[in-house]
What we know:
Blueprint lengths: L2 E3 H8 L3 H9 L5 E6 L2 E7 H11 L33 H39 L4 H11 L2 H6 L2
Antiparallel strand pairs: 1-3, 2-3
Amino acid sequence: MARLTIQKAANMTGVSARTIRRRVKDGTIQAEKVLRGGRDVWVIAGGDLAAWAETAGHTMTTGGHEAAPVQDSDHDKQVDSDGQPRSTGPAQADTNRQEELDRARQRIQDLERERAWLRGHIDSLTRALPPAASQEAETEEKSRSWWQRLWGN
């Protein structure tokens, strides 16, 4: 699958490279860093870029040229236990996304349980507090008219 640099992705979608970087940063577009020419470069899978462009309403163009894939570095390749390249096709991507979604749902449930426990703890602590003496004085002060409060009667 072709992997594109941020600049090539921007050229293909007709948006600025800065827009692509912002979408990568906020997670809207999936990207990864690979070692290229002795430095790390962000690359985007062509399918991920196409999916984002479709949902965002941008038209993909190639400008008369096919996008050249970014060359993989040796440390970037995924291999299975036999040393063979691992397949990362659409089915695997769907499985990975489903696993990620399941983990996110579990995290939400854990956070909701924690929130419920914290609310209960706060309620019990609030009930344990003694009533404020200033509340009685404040109620008595409000029952007096403004001129009595002003002149101290």
